[in-house]
Amino acid sequence: MRLVRNSRRVTEEQFQAACDVAAAVFAGQLTTAQGVQRLDEEHGVNPTSAGDFIYDYRCLVEGRGFPRGMSAAAMHHFLAQIHMQHGDVGLSRALGALEQHIQYFASRGKRLKSQQAVHDAFLACLASRN
Predict the structure, then answer these.
(1) How many CB atoms lie within 10 A of CB 106?
(2) Reduced 3-state DSSP string for the chain
(3) Which long-range contacts link 105-108 to residues 24+ away (Cβ below 8 Å)?
(4) How many Å apart are CA 97 and CA 61, to the nearest integer?
């Protein structure tokens, strides 16, 4: 059964599924195409958005900046999951990627206040653990 897409926003259920699928793609359990198809068919995520989530997850885990955005709530979820799956080192790497993402938009005259707040909250969490 194909779900009806919410054309306005990605729901919490959808971004949680996107994070799980992206982690499976990163782990080699699914190809990117399979992940996009699963998110589209089972969760109603637009294929372009699904691909973006998978790409952003990989960049976060690898510590590379990325130009495609996601909501602050989705970013918070992705960072929390990366922390659970990859520990403090993985979270630190992901925060570096998010910082690059924030700087990318700042260089184009756009401040990502909510993303900066997510970044700062996770950075404070890491600092309190050390």
Answers:
(1) 12
(2) CCCCCCCCCCCHHHHHHHHHHHHHHHCCCCCHHHHHHHHHHHHCCCHHHHHHHHHHHHHHHHCCCCCCCCCHHHHHHHHHHHHHHHHHHHHHHHHHHHHHHHHHHHCCCCCCHHHHHHHHHHHHHHHHHC
(3) 105/69
(4) 8
Across the chain, what does the average pLDDT equal?
92
Specify whether the CB–CB gap between 89 and 62 falls below 8 A. no
Provide the whole-model pTM.
Answer: 0.91
Give the residue extent of every domain in the chain: 12-129
Residues 3-40: tens digit of each pLDDT = 444 455 889 999 999 999 999 999 999 999 999 999 99
